[in-house]
Amino acid sequence: MYAITSKMYLDHDENFQLCVNFSTSNIKHHKFLDVDSHKVMRSVTGICEKLKIHNEIKNAEKLEKYVDLFLQIPAFEGKDIGKTDTHYALLALLLNLAESPVFADYKEIVKEVEETKEEFDWRAYLLEGEEIYVPSDGDTTDEEWMDEYKDTDEPSGEKTVVLKFEDDRIKEEASATELFESNLLSRDLSTPAESGDGWLINNVVIQYWQGMIDDSRDIGDYPSSNLSIDWERHQERTNPLYSVGNRPLLTEIQFMREIIWMFSGVSSLFVFQFDGMQFKPRNDIMLSHLTTNSLQSLLDDFAKYGTYVQVLYKCVQKVISLSFGDNSQSAETVGQTYQAFANAVTQFLTKMKVDMGKIEKRLIAEEETITMSLLYGELKPWLRKVIALHEVYVKGIKRGYGFPSNSQRASKLLSAIYEIVMEYDTMGQYAGELLGLLLPIWLQTSRPYIDIIDNWITYGTLVDPKEEFVITRNREVKSLDETFWERAFTLHASASNSNANEDSNSTQRTKNKSCVQKSRHGTAVWAPLFLQPILLQVILTGKSMEMLESLGKLADVVDRKDGLSSEQESLYEKFVNSLQVLLCTKRVEETVDSAQAEATPSKFAMFSVQVEQQMKLKGVYDPLLKINFETIFLAWIKKSESKHSEEDDISRILHPLDTENVQPVELILQQCLYPLIIERYHKVCNHLVRILKEDYNLMEYLAAMRNFFLMEAGDTMFSFYTQLFDKIRRHEPWRDVSTVNLLLQESLSAHFPEEVNRLTIDVVIQDGMKDGQPTNITDCLKLHYKVPWPVDVVINSHCLELYNQIFSFLLQVKRVKYCLEELRFKDLDKENILRSLSQQELKTTSEPGEIPRASRVHRMQILRMRLIYFVNSLHNYIMTRILHSTGLEFVCDLEKAVDLDQLIMVHNNYVRKIHERCLLHKKVGFLKEAVMKVLNLSLHFQRKWDQGIDEVMLKTIQDMESEFTRCIQFLASFLSNIIKRGSFPHLESLAFSLVTSTEYLTAFN
Amino acid sequence: MADSGRQKTSQAREVMDSLYEISKILNTGLDMETLATCVRLCENGVNPEALTLVIQELRRESAAIKTSNSQI
Questions:
Q1: Chain A interface includes B27 (CB < 8 A)
Q2: pLDDT surpassing 80 at residue A314
Q3: How far apart are CA A336 and CA A410, in angstroms?
C-alpha cells in the first residue's frame, strides 16, 4: 500500500514515517467530494478537444479510445459490467495528476504505444514456452541469444526508462539510451522481483545458459522421472564425501534442441562445449530421469558427430575465406577442386540443416514423443553420412595439407574421395545411400579437374589458374622446338619434388614423355586415382592439341560450329549425361528441355519498337540483318538463362541418380568418362599423325634419312663415296668442306635435285683422329640434314647423332669394300725398279725361309679374296639383313602408330635397333673391335698390295693371315654361339658366312 | 475455474494497459508500479482527489529534499 512512498523515500528513513502519517491522514480525513462520473467524462472530452486544438489529433483519438476501452472492461468491484465508480475514480486520479498533456513529448508516447503493442505479441509468443530458432550461422549464436534475451526484456526495460524520465525530463535522448542500457545490465544481475519481470520469469524458459537454475525442480508423478534426484540422494546417503553441487536441471527437449543446434553448425552451445577442436558435453548438468553417467555416455556419442559436423563447417569456411580473401599476402591458395568440394559439402550441410530445422519444429510442437534415443535413431542416416564425409575430409584434405602444391592436394582429395566411393561401393547394399551421397559429391568435386582436361583436349588450352592439374606447361619450352614433345609439359610434382628427392624417387617422378613406360610410372604417383588409367591418353591428346595449335591446324579438330548458336556440351556434361543414360534416370533432363522449348517462342519479340523504327527510318532496314540479330540475341538469352539455372541443373541432374542399380564405380567410369576421352584422343592424335605424314611429309623425311644416312639410295651415295675414296687413295686433298660438299651435291643432283639444299656435309677434325686407325679417316665427315620444325620432334638431334654414327660406320665398310675391290693384279705384280736393283744385290743374302715371289703373290691373292669375302658378307649383312629388313619393319610400325608418341617411339626404337645391330652399341664393343681390326687389316693390306709384291715380306703376309684368321675365328665362334642360343636371329647369316670362311682352314689344318 | 481465472487475469492486464496508456497520454508521470498501487488504493475506496493531493505533495517534498541535498 505504501509502495509509492517507500519508493520515493527509500533513502530517507527519518522522513518516511512523516510521509506515511501525512498520507494516512490525508486519505482518511479528506474533505473531497465523491467522484462525479459526468464531471470526469466532461474533463476527458475537454482534454481531447484541447489536444485536437493543439494539432495532436492522434493523441486525442488514442485517449478517447483507451478511455472507452478502459470503461468497458469489467474488472472492479466484482461486477460483470464496466463503468463502475472505481473506473471513474481512477480516471479522476489520472486527470488530476495530469501535467500539461499538450506539451508532453509526443514522439516518446508514440514509441511507447508501439512497444506496448509489441508486448502483446511477445507475450503470446513467449507463452508457448519455446521459440522457433534456426541459427543461420555458427558464429552468431551468442549474439542471437543475447538479442533474444534483450527482446524478451524490452518491455520492462522501457518501463524503467519512463520511471527515470519522471525525475528528469530534460535529459537528452542519447543519455536516455545509456541509462536504459545500464538499467538493463543492473537488472540482469539482480534477480528481478518486480511485477513485469516476475511475470516473465514465470512464463519464459529458464535461462539455463545464463546459469539460472529452476529452483522448483518439480517432482513428477512418475518415479522414473525422478531417477536422477533419487540416485543423487542415494549417493549422498551412502557416500559422505559425495557432493552434487548446484547443477542446472535441463529438460530433455532442451537437450535435444541443443543437439540439433550442434548438428546445424552452431559452435557455442551450453550443453556441448567447443574447445576449438571438438565438442565435449558439459558434466555439470543433469536430466531428471537419467543418471549423470548414462547422460554423459549418450551425450558423448552426439558430441562426436557434432565435432565432425563442426570440422566440416570449419573446412568449408576456410576454403571460402581463402578463396575470397586477399590472397596476395598469404601464399596459400585454394584450388578449384577444393572449392568444388566445399560447395558440395555445403549443399549437404544445408540439406542437413533443413532437416534439423524440421525435427526442431516437431520438437517445439510437442505433439509426439521424442526422446534422445529416438532422436539418435532418427539422425542415424545423417550421422552415417557425416562419418563418411568426415572420412573424406581426413583422408583428402587434412592429410593433404602437407603437400606443397595445389596439384598434389587436389589429386589427394580426388583420389581420397574416389577411394572411399570405391570402398563403399564394394560394400554393396549396405552403403547404398552413402554412395548416393558420395557419388554426387565426388562428381561435383571432380568437375574442375574434368573441365581442365576438357579445355585442354578440346580446345588445346591448359587453363589451370590455381595450378592444380597434374600437368603443367613448361614455359621455357617454346612450341617451335624439337624438344617440345618431350619437355613442353611437366608434372607439377616433379618440379616441386626434384629438389627434395634427388635419389631414386626423383627419377621415378620426373617425367620423360618420350618413353611410354617411364611416363606410366612417373604420372601414376600424383595423378588422381580415377584418372590414372586414362592419363596417358589425356596427356597425349593435350600435347597433340598444343602441337596442332602451333601448326595452325587447330580448327580442324575443334568442331566449334558457332560459338553463339549452338552451345557445345562440355566433357563434364557429356559425362554426366552418359551417366544418366547408364543409370536410366534421363527423364529429368527431358522435362527441362521441353520447358526450355516452350519458353523460347515467347522471347521472340525481343526488339523494342524504337529499335525497329530506327532500323526502318535510317534506310538501313535489312530483313536479313534482323534475322541474324534475332538468332544471335536468342542464343545469348538462352545461354544466359541456362547459366542461371546451371547450378540447379547440376544438382538436379546429380541427385536423381538412382543408386539402386549402380554398377561398380569403375564400370561407370569405363562406360561414361573414358570413352569420351578416348574418342577425343583417337580423333586428335590421328589427325596430328595424319597432318604430320601428309602435310609435313614426315614419311619423306624418314625416307631421306634412310636414303642418305643409311645409304639406301645406293647409286647416289656410290657416286659420292667412290669419288671421295679415289681422292683419298690418290692422296689428293679432300678434307675441306667445299670439296666434300661439291662431291655430295654433284651426286645428289642426278637423282635428288630437291634435296641438294637440305643435305650438307661437314668436316669435323677432332684431336686424336689423325693418328688413329686408317679406317677412321672418314670419321670426320658428318652429314647434316635440315629437318623443319614439326618433323624434328620425331627426327630429333639425338636421332641424327645416331644416324651419323651409322653413316660413319657404313662409310668405313664401304671404303674397305671399295678398296679391296679396286685392287689390280698388275699393281701387285709390278716390278719395283728401285727395289729390284738392290734386291738382285741382296738376292744371295735373302732369308732362308723366303718363298718364291709367285707363291707370295698367290698368298696375297688368297688373302685378298678372303678379306673380300669377309667384307662382302659384313656389308651384305648390314645392308640387307639389318638396314633393309629393319627398315621394312619400321615402315610397318609407322603405319600402325596412332599417336605422335608412338610415332616417336617407333622411330627411336628403329634407330636404336639399327645402331645396335651395326655393332655400334657399347654392349657389343668387343665384336666391333674384332670387325674393326679386320677392316684396318684390309686397308693395311690394300696399301701393301699397291706397293707391289716385292715390298711384301712373307712374314708380313703371315702376320696378316694369322691376325685375320684369329679375328675371323673369334667372330665365327662367338656368333655361332649366339646363334645356338637363338637370341639374335638377325646375326645368323653373318655367322654362317663367317663359319664357312673358316671351315677350309680347319679342313686344311 | 481455470478459464475464468485466466480471463480475469487477462482483463486485469488489459485494464492496467489501458490505464497506463491514458496516464502516459495525460503525462501524469506515473510508472506501472505506482499506477498499480493507485489502482489498488482506488479499488479500496480511497478518494482519488485525496490521493492526487498526497502524490503531488509527496513529489514536491521529495523534489525539495533532492534539491537541498544537491545544494549541500
A1: yes
A2: yes
A3: 8
Q: What are A849-868's pLDDT values in tens digits?
A: 556 777 888 888 888 888 88
Residues in chain A, how many? 1005
Tell me the pLDDT tens digit for each residue of A814-827: 888 888 888 877 77
DSSP state of A794: T
| ipTM, interface predicted TM-score of the complex | 0.80
Amino acid in position A978: I
Q: Which residues pair with A491 in a beta bridge?
A: A471
pLDDT for A984 beyond 80: no
Q: Nearest-CA neighbor of A717 among A708, A725, A726?
A: A708
Contact pairs from chain A to chain B, CB under 8 Å: 153
Q: H or E element: which one contains A652?
A: helix A646-654
What is the C-alpha R_g of chain B? 16
**Residues in B touching A5 (Cβ below 8 Å):** 58
Lowest mean pLDDT among A394-403, A637-646, B3-12: A637-646
Q: A304 burial class (0-12, 13-18, 19+ CB within 10 angstroms)?
A: middle
φ/ψ region of A724 (left if φ > 0, alpha if ψ in -120 to 50, else beta) reads alpha
Q: Is A549 exposed, middle or buried (0-12, 13-18, 19+ CB in 10 A)?
A: middle
Q: What is the pLDDT of residues B25-61, one digit of tens each?
A: 887 777 788 888 888 888 888 888 888 888 888 888 8
Helix or strand run (H / E) with residue A937: helix A925-947
Residues near A325 by Cβ (< 8 Å), separated by ≥ 6? Answer: none
Question: In Å, how far are A113, A202, A943, B20 from A116, measured between CA atoms?
Answer: 5, 20, 130, 10
Please determine, for residue A390, whether its predicted confidence score (pLDDT) is greater than 50: yes
pLDDT of residue A568: 55
pLDDT, tens digit, 9 for 90 and up, residues A676-735: 778 878 888 888 888 888 888 888 888 888 888 888 777 888 888 888 888 887 877 777
Residue with C-alpha cell 535461462?
A: A207
Work out the burial of residue A908: count CB atoms within 10 Å of its CB; fewer than 13 is exposed, 13-18 middle, 19 or more buried. middle
Q: How many CB atoms lie within 10 A of CB A1005?
A: 6
Helix, strand, or coil (residue A785): strand
- What percent of chain A is modeled with pLDDT above 70? 60
Measure the CA–CA gap between A688 and A683, rounded to whole angstroms.
Answer: 9
Closest residue to A96, CB basis, from B33, B49, B62: B49
Handedness of CA A510, A515, A517, A519 (dihedral sign): positive
C-alpha cell at A304: 562426436
pLDDT for residue A351 is more than 80: yes
Using CA atoms, how far apart are residues A823 and A860, in angstroms rounded to an integer? 11
Interface check for B33 against chain A (CB to CB < 8 A): the answer is: yes
Tell me the DSSP string of A402-424.
T-SSHHHHHHHHHHHHHHHHHHH
**Measured distance CA(A251)–CA(A259) in Å, rounded:** 13
Cβ density class A864-879: b for 16+ within 10 Å, e for less: bebbbbbbebbbebbb
Query: Average pLDDT of chain A?
Result: 69
Chain A residues within 8 A of B21 when measuring between CB atoms: 62, 66, 113, 116
pLDDT for A193 beyond 60: no
Measure the CA–CA gap between B58 and B62, rounded to whole angstroms: 6
Identify which of A9, A63, A97 has the shortest CB distance to residue B52.
A97
Give the count of beta carbons closer than 10 Å to the beta carbon of residue A851: 12
